Amino acid sequence: MQAKELITLMEEKYPLSLQEAWDHSGLQCGDAYKEIHKVMIALDCDQRTIKEAIAAKCDMLITHHPFLFKDLSLDLNSYVGKCIALAIKNDLVIYSSHTPLDKVSMNTWLCEALGLTEITDFEESGIAKKGTFTTPLTFDDFIARVKAAYHLPVVHVAGEKAMISRVAICGGSGSDFIHEADVDAYITGDLKYHTGEEATIQNKVLVDIGHHAEVIMVSHLKAELEKCTDLTIVESCSPDYYRYL
User: Using CA atoms in the order 70, 74, 76, 80, what is the torsion angle rounded to 10 degrees?
Assistant: First the structure.
């Protein structure tokens, strides 16, 4: 299979037409006509993940977060330039699906992991999702469920409610969506301090699970691609950038 054939399969499910204007999904670098046999799935596209894919003798790396997200630099002394040079020298094709994957699957996967049902869009862009617990949870049980679902040692929480039934989730930086719907709790990552104040004023529970919770996409996307290709698909370690001490 050529890399472009796998890209076509990706874009049939996660079309680039869905990406936000600020996003940079798609082919990051490499030869789309390269024959591929082994693919790595990762959350982040950075030097450590590129090196991991090369060490595993992968022909292609598919990530959620693009490394061309902030800038494009061919200066080989810059971080992005070093990533591009490392990939090209090792004939590694890199493809990223960011907001298209968010809108189609990412936050649905996060909702399902939490045990929510009746999952629908939470806001206009379609990135965040919302759902309902079949049986409402107490506040303490809800926080315990969040930690267990996303394998988190700690979470940041603002606000409190006796019972939690309706929940919205945006795995990335979703503070802009906090006003969008009437839910009991909102789960997202990368929150600023005063967003907690807003949640408290609105009588909502706000839970910051960190951006790394999106690592859930690695195993899910691997399973999807294994159903429609004969390629060897492997999972990246995709470690968090933060340690919890």
Answer: 20
Average pLDDT of the segment spanning 80-89: 93
Compute CA distances 172 → 178, 210, 241, whole Å.
13, 8, 14
Output the pTM of the full model: 0.95
| pLDDT for res 89 | 96
Q: Which residue has the higher pLDDT, 93 or 197?
A: 93
Residues near 8 by beta carbon (within 8 Å), at least 6 away in sequence: none
Nearest residue to 46 (alpha-carbon basis) of 84, 74, 93? 84
Q: What's at 104, amino acid-wise? A: V
For 113, 122, 129, 207, 243, the CA distances from 145, given in Å and listed in that order, are 10, 21, 18, 12, 21
CA distance 25 to 32: 15
- How large a percentage of the chain has pLDDT more than 70? 98
Asked if 15 contacts 202 with a C-beta cutoff of 8 angstroms, the reply is: no
